[in-house]
Design a protein that fits this description.
It holds the Pfam family MOSC. This is MOSC domain-containing protein. The structure is a single chain. With 149 residues, the chain is mainly beta. Helix content is 14%, strand content 36%. It has 3 helices and 11 strands. It is globular, with a radius of gyration of 14 Å.
Length: 149
């Protein structure tokens, strides 16, 4: 089982990602305090440190997780990218269920923020965009149940 390794939010578009120890997830709305809160589908973006390590190898330099603009980072494993797949974050106060909407496509900002070629290195390694199906608190260290590939 994977765990939440890191959480980041940005209060507005283009603002730096801020690490947080926990965040409230609201069903149908997203992460409280994040720029995407209240959007239709882009509630949570999920990546994995294993996929970041592969991107680092392809890029030839570090790909810092906070610069990818993703909100939730798993400690290991593959992030499902098939629409409809679900991830369950097992918190102390209950589960938060996330549903994959689409694969997260790295944008041109990756080449600006990380370096030329970062976008290509993150291709097929950028994780997923999910919507929040059930409300609750997500905390660094929570277990995350990821469906088998």
């Amino acid at each position: 089982m994977s765990r939440v390794a890191a959480l980041y939010v940005a209060p507005e578009r283009k603002a730096p990602m801020v690490p947080v120890a926990s965040v409230e997830a609201e069903a149908g709305r997203g992460l409280v305090g994040d720029r995407h809160h209240g959007t239709r589908h882009r509630h949570v973006s999920v990546q994995s440190r294993d996929e970041l390590a592969a991107a680092t190898a392809a890029f030839g330099a570090s790909v810092p997780e906070e610069l990818t603009r993703r909100t939730l980072t798993l400690d290991h494993g593959a992030v499902p990218t098939t629409p409809g797949a679900r991830l369950v974050v097992r918190g102390e106060e209950g589960d938060v269920v996330l549903e994959v909407v689409r694969r997260a496509a790295p944008c041109r900002v990756m080449d600006t923020e990380i370096g030329p070629g970062a976008r290509a290195a993150l291709h097929d390694r950028g994780g997923s965009i999910c919507r929040v199906l059930t409300s609750g608190t997500i905390t660094v260290g929570d277990e995350v149940e990821v469906p088998a590939a």
